[in-house]
Amino acid sequence: MAPAPTATHSVVTLTVNGEKHTLPVDHRTTLLDALRERLDLTGTKKGCDQGQCGACTVLVDGRRAVSCLQLAVAAEGREITTIEGVADGDRLHPVQQAFLDLDGFQCGYCTPGQICSALAVLDEHAAGWPSAATDDVRPEAGVPPLTPEEIRERMSGNLCRCGAYVSIVRAVERAAAADRDATAADAPGTGDDIPAGTAKEALA
Of 34, 145, 189, 204, which sits 20 to 30 A from 80 (CA to CA)? Predict the structure, then answer.
């Protein structure tokens, strides 16, 4: 039986990678420490512990968050996705596969946070969110091209001490192309008739 809440502790239920976990936590416990120390989800890394390096990035309700700056008690009732929940069983997510194929990592320490950020970047871009690198931020301009400059700006909160940035940008480009290709293939009247110059050609 879990201990009763006190003035400094609460019992929270965290939904992580689709599973609910009920545990008592000190009110000062960060989401990062709850994931690593209490739930043994050590894929999320502790880097600077100050919200500057991005190594601890996870998705909270689909949006990226540095888990070292979020309290565990504030994450109750929200959907948390860590690197352990990105793949579909033994099948890697296209972003993970792109990082693997294009050497988007060296030591790998920052990679879980890089991948979680990349997932959010693709969703943010598809939703039409501009960045500081976007030339035309007017809503009527539509979704900006996902250029290397856009990717670098959108991924700038994640640091890589090995300096694998060139490969990381290429991996995000590859994953974005795969996503466009899958979307086009699923659209009515498309498939092998996707014209040249699209994501299908880029992945050839």
Answer: 145
Separation CA 87–CA 95 (nearest Å): 9
**Burial label, 81 (beta-carbon count in 10 A; 0-12, 13-18, 19+):** buried
Q: Per DSSP, which regions of the chain are E strands?
A: 9-16, 19-26, 57-60, 63-66, 79-81
The number of residues in the chain equals 204
Residue 142 DSSP symbol: -
Helix (H) or strand (E) holding 119: helix 111-126
Which pLDDT belongs to residue 1? Answer: 53
Residues 6 or more apart whose Cβ sits within 8 Å of residue 166: none
* Residue 129 Cα to chain centre, angstroms: 16
Q: What is the CA radius of gyration of the chain?
A: 19
**pLDDT 10s digits, 80-113:** 999 999 999 999 999 999 999 999 999 999 999 9
DSSP 36: I
State residue 181's pLDDT score.
76
Which residues partner with 59 through β-bridges? 64, 81
pLDDT (0 to 100) of residue 168:
98
Secondary-structure breakdown of the chain: helix, strand, coil percentages, each rounded to the nearest 5? 40, 15, 45
Q: For 155, list phi and psi in degrees, rounded to 5.
A: -95, 5
pTM of the model: 0.85
C-alpha of 118 from chain center? 5
Regions of the chain short of the pLDDT cut 70: 1-5, 189-204
